[in-house]
Design brief:
Layout (H helix, E strand, L loop, with lengths): L1 H17 L14 H16 L26 E6 L4 E6 L1
């Protein structure tokens, strides 16, 4: 339990340090799929299960200040039920 607390604290500190500066848009930089997948696994491991809305992932400590990526035309962000990964799926 103490180890988990320190890992969360470290992640929050890194996120705070990484979010300063840079040439980000008014809504902040876009998160990458690997970042979203790490956050998704973190949320699932916390016992909350998988989110119903992917926007919930932007509240994860390592993604604060970031926004969901803009999908390519004809695609949308989704959680693949077979792999439990964030993917660009057909609309």
């Amino acid at each position: 339990m103490l180890r988990s607390f320190f890992l969360c604290l470290l992640a929050a500190a890194l996120a705070a340090g990484c979010s300063k500066g840079g040439a980000a848009g008014p809504k902040g930089p876009e998160a990458t799929l690997p970042e979203l997948n790490r956050a998704l696994q973190g949320v699932a491991m916390s016992g909350r299960g998988y989110p119903s809305d992917l926007n919930e992932l932007t509240n994860f400590p390592t993604l604060r200040g970031k926004r969901l990526p803009t999908p390519p035309p004809g695609k949308k962000l989704a959680i693949d039920p077979a792999t439990h990964q964030v993917v660009f799926a057909d609309q």
